[in-house]
Amino acid sequence: MHYYQFNISVWSLHTSHLTLEEECVYRRLLDYYYDTEKPIPEETKQVIRRLRLVNYEHVVEQILGEFFHLEQDGWHNNRADIEISDYQAKAEKARLNGKKGGRPKQNKGIETESVILANPEETTLKANYKLLTNNYELIEKNTTGKPAVTLSVWLEKIKVLGESPIQETDSIFDYASDAGIPIDYLRATWVEFKTEFSEKSDKKKDWRAHFRNFVRKNYYALWWIDSGEYKLTSRGQQAMAAMNNKDKREQ
Fold first, then answer.
1. Rounded CA separation 55/32 (Å)
2. What single DSSP character describes residue 29?
3. What pLDDT digit, counting tens, does each position of 144-195 carry?
4. Burial bucket for residue 43 (CB in 10 Å: 0-12, 13-18, 19+)
5. Which residues contact 115 (CB under 8 A, 6 or more apart)?
6. CA atoms lying within 13 Å on the CB side of residue 41
7. What is the DSSP letter of 68?
8. Residue 102 has what pLDDT?
């Protein structure tokens, strides 16, 4: 896609907390997403170079973690996926109609034919691109069946359902086992994660996926590897002490 609708009011609403450079990085990532019609690769080195974002790697990671979610084929953005899918479906329909000799006649005579011939590009655009609703929350809800909420709201919800924040079957435990990350390091990361986002108004559809990303990327830099052995950084030791003292208070 070389064209997509840009809703200024929705953009302002959902990026008002970003710095100028963060907003710029987010917009460039979205432009790349729409242009290639593919998710952002998990290995972002080539994308960063292509988008001239060298020296902004930390901002790229932050934006991906906040506005995208990681799947097997890369970083996805729900809204972009909807629009790209809709565009591709309409483009495929137009292609099939072209094989049949064009769009079916509508028995409106010369008037319809004149509109098509007068400005074929405008007609194509109207066929391929839909106007986006101003109600972004509705789009999100219809996309996945669940709205984006703050961490505090999500924790209250799963508490009522009797669920653990990070369930025993969560894939992050398999990842930690494969990587050799000690289980206590995971717990310390969760304490830091919960403390940070409980004080923020950030909204996510899948907080478990967001946490998994923090562990995989070691965003809090709680550990490092020395000769194949995991060791805590100074920040990691602080997080571990906070976790242990919290456990003592709750006993």
1. 18
2. H
3. 456 788 998 888 888 877 788 888 888 999 899 889 999 889 999 999 999 9
4. exposed
5. 123
6. 9
7. -
8. 58
